[in-house]
Every structure is written in structure tokens, then in C-alpha cells.
Amino acid sequence: MDLDVFGSSVGEWLKGDGPESDIVISSRVRLARNLSGHNFLARAQQDELESIEASVGRYLREKDGRFKRLYFRMQELSEMERYILVERHLISREHSRAEPGRAIASTDDERLSVMINEEDHLRVQMLRSGLRLEEAWREADGFDNRLSEHFGYAFSPKYGYLTACPTNVGTGMRVSVMLHLPALVMTREIDKLFRAISKINLAVRGLYGEGTQAYGDLYQISNQASLGKSETRIFENLESVVASVIAYERKARERILSADKIKTHDRLWRAFGMLKTVHLLSSEEMMHLLSAVRLGASTGVLPTVDARTINELFLFTQPAHLQKNTGRSLNTQERDTQRARVIRDRLAAFN
Amino acid sequence: MDLDVFGSSVGEWLKGDGPESDIVISSRVRLARNLSGHNFLARAQQDELESIEASVGRYLREKDGRFKRLYFRMQELSEMERYILVERHLISREHSRAEPGRAIASTDDERLSVMINEEDHLRVQMLRSGLRLEEAWREADGFDNRLSEHFGYAFSPKYGYLTACPTNVGTGMRVSVMLHLPALVMTREIDKLFRAISKINLAVRGLYGEGTQAYGDLYQISNQASLGKSETRIFENLESVVASVIAYERKARERILSADKIKTHDRLWRAFGMLKTVHLLSSEEMMHLLSAVRLGASTGVLPTVDARTINELFLFTQPAHLQKNTGRSLNTQERDTQRARVIRDRLAAFN
Q: What is the pTM of this model?
């Protein structure tokens, strides 16, 4: 098991750089694929799942080579280790069940990863920091083509890629962008904006996908429909919406930093001051305070802090990461104490 | 006018040292005296008041000599300057009216001061840091004897010292102790305690005397009755009550620092973190936060901060001091901004 690396590093997507990275945390392209000549997951027996895992695993680790180090079978991981993968956005919650045949392969920088036997045989994910949808798509597409040549995909000339769930049929693609929108939350414009977005067939979710709340003012916008649209149309649609959300957020930031300058400075600096001194910190309050500090870092109000540090703290303070770094399981108060310590220690260098 | 000195120094009583200074801010002895052969204030004409002021002033500045530098006639001060004297506890609010004959004399360390023509001809005040009632009394008494020899006091063998208000007749003495009781406030024991105290003829007030609220968990306990009791009885009574209040506060501090250790550390450290970073701070919130930081300093939870710094901040952030140090009058938001700046700048040195 080479999960040790996860204790102190973050994936490329949390680096805090890339275009528009003051607002856009990351861009993600996900492809749902199934191998031809194999039963889909709902009908496959255990040995078939295991043989798919074995052959895809062999290809990724040996032929491709970039997945040598980070290749894990769910069954072989502890619960905490599987949660770490969830927190790193490498696997879904569903995939974290320790069932035979389930595996995850990732490049060392966690930019490109493949879930094996999640809902489909393959879920290819490309995750990049900043707003880089097309770049992410080109990279994912190249990799996908090579996989396709090697394995052969279940594909219908009429419908496109065939997938376990009909919502994924067609391109099999889901594209999403993770945005940090604290100013729109402060000015209370966020709900209106998202009502408008959901009318045009895009989905808005919190940090950890469907059904999770948007703690920390982090919102994920993604396409809903996959069928009957070209990849290009999907991109264009998402990109234009994201561009206007970014513009709205920028305007809201300007407004709170001019009209309410002192109040905003007060709020962002206090959040920073508290995070530097907390001894007990719930996950919810932390997300709230980190969001304010990230806004301070992005707007120059907190000149010494950088977005990367804050992005890393979002990750290292998640429960499984906290427990991994403490070396044991923690109850709620212990987690709140440890979370406070991690943040305090990390921010001690900044003034 | 030599009020400039007040911009950067504090009186001896705010030094934060002396016995029990983790809990006792200061001890105060006040004597109400009237000169024989003169009308009391209610009946005195303006020229009589001015002649009293002139002769007492001459004595203090020339004969005694310690009052050369800090001698002010209310009429000659601006409103802001008079408020500064109130904030420094050198004069009462009543005395701050710019009326002829009203004056204040103080030693350079503000330990000993005399209000001339406040409610009585003379109000002698001895103010010391920490719990030093008897020491303060001895000093005040020596000074008072010399004044008495020089001027002659209105005195009745039956009633004692005669004063404008019957509540002061007798010893003419009021003794009070300023206590910082944050732990008793946190554990909600304070009300019960003070109900008990008020039954035994002691008064409990906030930082700025009668009718002011106990912001910052600062409480002043003083004797009520002056008639029919010896000075010694008054001291013994107050001292024994103060001793038990101190013991209760110590126990409460121990309790919140053992049973609720992490919560208490969290609370005190956060208050410190916020004060180091605030940009907008109301007087009320400041008192609340400074109280927590003072508790942290006194109990070793905040090892780098000292009580003196906090005591000084209680003073330098009062409205008139803020305005004096800014050099102009300030509206509420400007005061809140300036107050935040003074505290941030002062605490920047502590980590």
C-alpha cells in the first residue's frame, strides 16, 4: 500500500494555479465507458468483475506505466484508506465499498485517474487546477482513445457510448467546474444565480458531489445531459455559464471591497486571526472561515496567505486525512481539536 | 496644558502589579472633605468657590509640590480633555462640567489626586494597582492630615466629617476595589454572588461607577455606609468580602481550565486572535474580548501577553483617548476603526 504519500501531498488540482484560479478551484472531465464483450455491472458475476479489474489493471500499471504507484483494490484497503481516496476526489462514495473487482488507478499527480467497476467498467477522470476544461478534455480524450483501441468499448452508432445509467449514454461525459463564490454568498445573489443556471440544464452541487451542502462557498457546476449533444456543445454551454458566474463573482468582490471596505477587511482578517488561534474547530465552521481567508488571499486583503495553502487545508482537515495523520481513529471532539491544530500550525508562518 | 502626557502613559493603578493582581485591578480610597469657615457647595457663590480653588491649588502646587504638573481647571479644558480625565478615573462625570472653581490636582503617577469643588470642597483619592487597601489608606490618611492642619475641616465630634451628601457623613470615606471576574461570569455564578454581597451593605458597580454596566467583567465593590463605623471596620468588612470573591473567582478559573480545558483555551486564544486582526471593533465587543485575553494572560493560557498591556488597552481605547491620539473628533465608525487599529498595533508584538 503506498497511501503514505497522501499524508503530505495534494493532487495537482489543488495547487491553486491555472486560469481564473482566484475563483475556479478545478476543472474536471469524466468519461463513463464499458468494455465490449463483457456484461455490464448489474449482470456481471464476481469472477467477470475480477477479470476486468485484472486486465485493466495490468494495462494501466504495465503498458501505460503512469499508474504503477497509485493502484489500489478496494478490498485491500481499510475503511479509513478508502475514505482518504474519497476526500481526494479519486473515488466516489459508492466506489468506496470494499467489494471484489473495485479498484482505482491514478497518476502520481492525481491528475488522471480511472475507477474500475464503479457504476460502469471504467470511469476516466481528468482533474486540473484552474479553468482548463478543454485542456483537460484533450488529455482525457487521448488517453481514452488508447484505452479504446486496446480494449474495445460498448458503443452504438445511434446512441453513442453505452453506459449503466441512461443519463450517461451518448458522450458518456460529465464536465464540471469547482468554483469558490464567497462574495456572491455574502451579497445574497447566489440563489438567484443558481435558479437561473438550473433552468438551462446544468447542475449545481457542493464540494463532495450530489446531495452535499455547499460548505465553504464551494460550488460545482456540471452538465446534466450527455445524450444527443456533442462534446463541443457541452463544453461551450458550460464554459459560457462559468464565464458569467466568474464575472458576477468578480463584480460582487469589487463591490464588497469598495462599498463595504472596512467591514469586509474586518471580516476576512478576523477569520484569519481565528484560524491562527483556534483550539476547537468543527468542520462546518472551518469551511466557513477558510472560505473567508481564501477570499482574502485571492483579493490581496490578506497579502501573506496563498490560495494553495488554503486549498491544502481544505483537504488535510477532512476527517480521514486528519485520522491518517494522527495515526488513529478520532472521536468528534478529538477531530475538532486535531483540525484546529493542523490549521494553527500551518498558518503560524503567515502574519 | 500638560495633558499630552496622557496620550502614551497610564496611571500607576493600571500597571497590573501588586497583590492579587491576576484578579484585582486596583484599590481605591476616597475621602470627602469640606473646609471649615466656608459655605458648602450648594450655598457657595462663584467667588467663594474660586477662592477655595485658588488657595487649595496654591497649597498643592507650591507647598506640597507633587501636583505642579497635573493641575487643571475644568473651565480651561476642552470637552475632550475633560473626558480624558474621566476615563483616567481622575474626575467624576459630574466634575467634568466646565464650571468656575472646579479643578483637579494629581501626582504624576496619578496615584494621589484631589478634586476641588466637586460635590464637596475636596475629594481626595488614592488609587493603587492590585489589592492594597490599607497601604492606600495610610498614604491617603497622611496626606489628609497635612491638608487638615493647613486648612481646617468641617468636623462634628458627634457625626464626624461633615459632607454635602448625608451618605458621606462620618468617615467621609469610600473604599472600593476593582475586580476582574471573567470566570465567575462564564460559570454564571456572578449574579448569585452579588446578590449576597448587596445584602451586607456593599455596592457592586461597573468600570465607570454608578449606573454603568460591568463591561469586560470588571466589577467595583465598595462600602455603602460611611456613618457610625470606624475606618478599620469599613476595611475589614470590604477586605473579607473581597477575599472570598477572589477565592470564588480562582476556583471558577481552575474549574474552566480543567473540566473545560480545550473549550476555554479555544475561547481565550480566539479572542486574542481576533484582537490581533480586527479592523472594526465596538467598545462593547472590545471589552468582552479584552476580558478574555486578560484572563488568558493571568492564567498562563496566553503566555506572551501581560496584564499591563491589556490594562493599558482598556484605557487607550476609550473614546476620548482615541480621539486625543487621533488628533480630532471621530464618529462611531471612525472610533471603531481607530480602536481596532490601536489594539492590532499594540498586540502585533505578541504571538
A: 0.88
